[in-house]
Amino acid sequence: MKDFVKKNLRFFLALILALLFAFAIAVYESIVFKGLKLSIARLCCDGLFISAVFCIGIGAITGILRFGGFDAINYASAKFLQAVKHPNPDDRDTQTYYDYVQKKKKERKTPFLYLLLIGGLLFIASLVLSFFC
Hints:
76% of the residues lie in helices and 0% in strands. The chain is mainly α.
């Protein structure tokens, strides 16, 4: 049991935070739109949907980052800052783009699928609740 919890702690914490975010959005909507008398199902549906969009968005950006989608931008920025700090070409690092990408590929271990899974589950829950609005 402890191994299961330890292995999936990141998933459970992200799920709890996403549900708290959905609850906060539902409470905020109930306060702002007090005169409209929205149903609880509608408030929960809106909160779950917005939380799902955030989880899917963060998961997608993390996945793109993990697979090297921003490596060229990071490498160019690092080389530019290095050129500004050390105007003399002899003082600069001579690492090529290929070496930079290979080094980063070995360092990347950021999981992202759990965020996409949580976002998908929240999205399905919001779709189910939308039938009761």
